[in-house]
Write a structure and sequence with these properties.
6-stranded parallel β-sheet, 14% strand
Length: 514
């Protein structure tokens, strides 16, 4: 991506203009918002104000300080909105989904709507202090209500899709039409996406229960129309990955849609996977003893031989599937790193016990140096960027998908919730970089299926096409974010980013040509 030292083509007088960014309070949303803020601040020298609640701001402060140390010109600030978890039926000091059980997510989502008057006051203060309104508000798809605040101050609101475009289109269509409630068939199409055939097993429990009058249906009915009417939409995707779906979104909304991804650290988008890249990534939180041990173990393995298994920070599998997965991994003979969490029915924050795995499993794989078991947290970007990693068993969350594709690592899909089912479908059926092994947190898995799928992807000839397409998609991702600095070799994502910036300036500040 563009160097932070690059010349600002929009003029030095723009340096202290504000862009307000407001992510939903979940790490999977905050992380891409942070990365986009770095990219915008470095490219334009705008002042970026990231808005959240007090505990999230507290957690973000060291990260922002670290970014400023790397680039003293970055003007990224944090702004707090008052929030009391007790007012919304949430556990004490809970302001992020990371510490919530899935049934409580909706409480937090609904609680964000109560932030509207506080957000109005913040924008009003910024207008008074700066002498003008912010250039724009870039906010999360779960914060559609921010459009009302933006309209109040005549500020362009841009909806940031932190998930894929294909997944978002299906997600919106399902909530708008609930087509599965109008048929008894296991398979059905979507009214506004007739080319997409879905199976009921690809629906999350939340959408299966939807009735138009339930709380989640009502919440989505308040957010989705606002997102579709926003001034623009920016996506963490790139043209070659989702070209047709980007065009569909443009036509269906009539709004400008910019694909600026993969929105990732520059180190992950360098020309080669190398030990040097891992060293660059292994800093701060990731530079602990467990991460260093993980890196040393990877160093001892052959190139592209290791299978990485992780289901994100908020998903897990049943106890029976956990044991079948363990036995299948062991019988495949393939080296692996597995991030484990307690099985379904237990809190994800509980201690992981060896009793959850087959008897003697950990001792056997350690004796054979076949596997590495990591509890709760692993340096995922380091693992995926390491030359020894050759496959990824993933829940197909979009951040994990972008990180895997940026490294050319093919995926074994096991979607668990939300739009992950549609991400897996896109990656397998359209992009050809994934094979789905299981579906849903309680889907039935066998040792034999695990062994067969792992061997196919990692070593067999028929998995070669998947591996080759993953490498091709890595090259496409890196080409999309390429920028020579002089404009002669600008990738599609950088062109879209610059077009978004230019449109913001034209709308907010009058014409200012590049």
């Amino acid at each position: 991506m563009a160097s932070s030292a690059a010349k600002n083509p929009w003029g030095e007088h723009m340096q202290k203009r504000h862009v307000v960014m407001f992510p939903f309070m979940a790490q999977g949303h905050i992380i891409p918002f942070l990365q986009l803020s770095y990219l915008l601040a470095a490219r334009t020298r705008f002042t970026i104000t990231i808005v959240s609640t007090p505990l999230n701001v507290q957690a973000l402060t060291p990260t922002i300080q670290s970014a400023r140390q790397k680039d003293s010109f970055l003007d990224i600030r944090l702004a707090e909105l008052p929030f009391s978890s007790a007012d919304h039926g949430l556990p004490p000091r809970t302001e992020n989904t990371d510490s919530l059980a899935l049934p409580q997510f909706l409480n937090l989502m609904e609680a964000t709507e109560k932030l509207q008057p506080h957000f109005e006051n913040l924008i009003r203060r910024m207008c008074a202090e700066d002498g003008c309104a912010p250039l724009c508000i870039i906010s999360d798809m779960f914060l559609g209500w921010t459009l009302d605040v933006a309209d109040m101050f005549a500020i362009p609101r841009i909806c940031f899709l932190t998930c894929g475009v294909y997944g978002t289109l299906i997600f919106y269509s399902l909530w708008n039409h609930l087509p599965h409630t109008k048929t008894d068939s296991e398979e059905f199409t979507l009214p506004d996406l007739p080319h997409v055939l879905l199976h009921r097993s690809q629906l999350s429990p939340t959408i299966k229960r939807a009735s138009r009058t339930d709380r989640m249906s009502l919440f989505q009915s308040r957010q989705i129309p606002h997102n579709m009417r926003s001034w623009g939409i920016v996506c963490n995707s790139f043209d070659q990955l989702e070209h047709d779906h980007l065009e569909h979104l443009r036509k269906s909304t009539g709004r400008p849609v910019w694909a600026v991804g993969p929105v990732l650290p520059a180190e992950l988008l360098s020309s080669t996977r190398s030990h040097a890249v891992c060293d660059q990534l292994l800093k701060g939180k990731e530079a602990d003893s467990d991460a260093i041990s993980c890196l040393r173990w990877l160093d001892s393995q052959n190139v592209s031989s290791v299978l990485y298994i992780s289901f994100g920070s908020q998903s897990t599998i049943s106890a029976s599937n956990m044991k079948e997965l363990a036995l299948g991994l062991e019988s495949s003979g393939q080296p692996f790193i597995w991030v484990v969490r307690p099985p379904l029915g237990l809190s994800l924050t509980a201690e992981f016990s060896s009793e959850f795995l087959p008897q003697g499993f950990e001792e056997r794989i350690k004796a054979k140096n076949q596997g590495l078991i990591i509890k709760k947290w692993a340096p995922q970007r380091v693992i995926l960027s390491h030359p020894s990693t050759g496959g990824f068993v993933s829940h197909c969350g979009w951040n994990s998908t972008m990180e895997s594709l940026s490294q050319g690592v093919p995926i074994i899909g096991w979607p668990m919730a939300a739009e992950q089912f549609f991400n897996s479908k896109l990656l397998e059926e359209e992009v050809g970089v994934c094979v789905e092994m299981c579906r849903g947190s309680e889907g039935e898995l066998t040792k034999e299926k695990v062994e067969r799928t792992v061997k196919m992807l990692m070593t067999e000839e028929k998995g070669g096409g998947i591996r080759e397409r993953a490498v091709a998609m890595r090259d496409a991702a890196r080409k999309a974010v390429r920028d020579s600095g002089d404009g002669t070799k600008k990738g599609s994502s950088m062109r879209d980013l610059d077009d978004m910036i230019q449109n913001i300036l034209n709308t907010s500040c009058g014409s200012q040509s590049l």
